[in-house]
Design goal:
The chain is mainly α. Helix content is 40%, strand content 10%.
C-alpha cells in the first residue's frame, strides 16, 4: 500500500485552535493516490465516487480531473456536478427514490 500523508506533530492542535473542532483535514494528493491505487489494482473497473460521502468541490474536481465517475443520490448533486462541467455519462443516479426533476 502507498504511503499515507501525515501531519507533522503539533499541526493538528494548531489547526484545531485556528478552526475549532470537530475538524476534518483531507489531502487532495492522498485522494489522488488512493484513486490511482484502486485503478491500478482493479483494471477494467469503473470507479464511482459517492458524492454524498463528501461533496466538497475541491474533492469532486480533483477526482474528475483524473477520470473518476460519480455516484449521485439527488438531483442537486447532479446539478452541482453539471455546473462543474462533469458530463452526465460520468454519473450514475443510484438512489432508489428519484424525484421528477432528477429523472
Amino acid at each position: 500500500m502507498q504511503n499515507c500523508f501525515k501531519l507533522p506533530p503539533g499541526a493538528v492542535s494548531l489547526l484545531a485552535e485556528k478552526h475549532g473542532t470537530p475538524l476534518l483535514v483531507l489531502s487532495l494528493q492522498q485522494i489522488k493516490d488512493n484513486y490511482t491505487f484502486l485503478t491500478e489494482h482493479l483494471p477494467g473497473v469503473k470507479i464511482y465516487y459517492a458524492v454524498k460521502a463528501n461533496p466538497d468541490e475541491r474533492i469532486v474536481r480533483t477526482l474528475a480531473a483524473i477520470g473518476s465517475n460519480f455516484d449521485v443520490a439527488s438531483d442537486g448533486e447532479m446539478t452541482d456536478l453539471h455546473a462543474m462541467g462533469i458530463q452526465a455519462e460520468r454519473m450514475v443516479y443510484a438512489n432508489p427514490v428519484k424525484t421528477a426533476s432528477g429523472l
